[in-house]
Amino acid sequence: MTAGPGTRRTPFRWRSPIRGPWLTSMFALPLLVGLPVVIVTGLLDWMAYGPQFGQSIPSDVGLLRLPFFEWPADPPWLFRLTEGLHIGLGMILVPVVLAKLWSVIPKLFTGPPRGPVKALERLSLVLLVGGILFEIVTGLLNVQYDYVFGFSFYQAHFVGAWVFVGAFAVHVILKFPTLVRSLGSRSLAKELRTPLSRTEPEPPDEHGLVAPDPDPPTMTRRGAIGLVAGGALFVAAITAGQTLGGWLRPAALLLPRGRTTAADGSSRTPGFPPDAVPGPENDFPVNRTFVASGIAPAAIGPMWAVTLTGGDGEVRLDYDQLNALPQHTAELPIACVEGWSTVQTWSGVRLRDLAGMAGVPEPASAVVQSVEVGPFARAQLTSSQVLAPDSLLAVRVNGKALSRDHGYPARVIVPALPGVHNTKWVVGIEFRRV
Question: What is the pTM of this model?
Fold first, then answer.
């Protein structure tokens, strides 16, 4: 096909004969379905951190604040599901996003828009592209590395998400009729049967996606769709293991933050019980090791005790006394904001039993304090989280004492709670009446 008289020759990189409204719409369709899931699960995860207590990050979001509701402790896999979908599906959609951007790149280099509708469309496109690229890059870096940003990832990611959400909503409203019309312009079944020799450009379109002077085809539309689908499936194969666990975990190459800790040097801690030396029972992922926390070994040594307050006095329990109390065992997951999760069998004292010992059998909330220093050394739990029958101050995992990396002498385990709020190295719990 040659250019007609007066036709402006497009740059060589935008002369693909398969680019056009139909292929763009094919790439847009899975994004139209998948991106709302990523958005909703991300917002739900922010709610899971307890914004009513000011401990969601960012906590002060002004007009972007969502209506508060109490994050449930049942089903126990709820946060594992929402965070796994948010991270996993977000990564799976990256090849589709890149393909969609390739398909519309001529639109980013056209002249100034004419009219308010076109101007709004162009603005939404710029914010859409910038927003989703920012979310992808910052999200992937946060999954891969420990705090590499010179700014607060959580605050930037949250604000960037709202910029993207607004642009996405406007773009869908403006372009949905075009999407429907374009999808109906060609038969998917026919395109999947079309060989390279019969691959032809789409008719000229008003949006400028079809090249007026296309190159000969080197790939069919079937091939392009298959390439993107194959890329998405490949990403799924190397990420799903960090959420699903089991035999798939070693294949999770893109989510290395959930490292395992078969040996953490616990046997060198003064007073550390022989039963708590790390072994296969403690060999499951952890986001922050004991050494990385900077805690002095003496802080969890023989003088350690957990203090329960909230009633008329305080109750102090050392390690042996805590182990002598009635123990409850539950199989519960831990899920982290970076997307990895694991399910283990935990044993310890029910939080509701400890609340009764403290003199507050029906607490309105509880504040858990760690010996660690830092932003996650303190977590506040709702009444339902404290009173849930499987909420524990755990001292054992898989039948063996916790290792230092997993929170020895005791850590909180609450169903459906974000991993970072399952506080490790607990030294105190305040059960609040109001």
Answer: 0.87
